[in-house]
Structure formats: C-alpha cells, structure tokens
Amino acid sequence: MPKFLIDRNFSKITEDELGEFAKNSKRLAIEQFNDVIWHHSHVVIDPDGVVHTFCIYSAPNESRIREHGAAFGGHQIDSISVIAGDVDPEEIAV
C-alpha cells in the first residue's frame, strides 16, 4: 500500500486544540477508514502562528486520504505527495 506525506493546515485551531483533532482522526481511521493507517506526524507552527502537520499515512490512494481528512474536518490539506522512498543517515557511508 502506498505511503503519503500530507501537509495539513489547521488555521482555525490552536496548538492546544490539536490533540483533540488527533484523537478524532485516529478514532475515525479505526471506525470508518480501516484501510487508512496513520504512522506519525510532525507539528510545525509557521511564522503567522498557523499550525501545520506533516503526516505520514498509508492508504490505497489519495482519494481515501482526502475522504478521511474531510470526515474529521477542522483543517485544509495543502498538499499530498506519494513517498517514493526513505533515506536513513545510518545507512549512508561517509
């Protein structure tokens, strides 16, 4: 199953409220989107104070990621990219 990098923009919530959105996202994935797997996220606050998350998910396709995002709301998806591979610094010879 492909992995995706999702840039989510939470312009209408605070960093403190993000935890509730994460719980709702996980609950929805378990209850309604069992083919969508949340691996992890990085939280970033941009210079304007807007919360962004850069999330790694596995899903059958991009449409399924968008359906999951629409179901829990409170944000917009700025971009979705298919992850072509990973680079581990421990595996790079110097």
What does it look like?
The protein has 94 residues and is α+β, with helices and mostly antiparallel strands. 27% of the residues lie in helices and 34% in strands. It contains 2 helices and 4 strands. It has helices spanning 18-31, 62-72; strands spanning 3-10, 37-45, 51-58, 76-82. It has a 4-stranded antiparallel beta sheet with strand order 2-3-1-4, with helices on one face. The model has no long low-confidence stretch (mean pLDDT 89).
Portion of residues within helices:
25-40%
Characterize the biggest β-sheet.
4 strands, antiparallel
Q: Strand portion, in percent? A: 25-35%
Mean pLDDT: 89
- Shape category: globular
Secondary-structure content class:
alpha+beta
Count of individual helical segments:
2
Distance between the termini: 32 Å
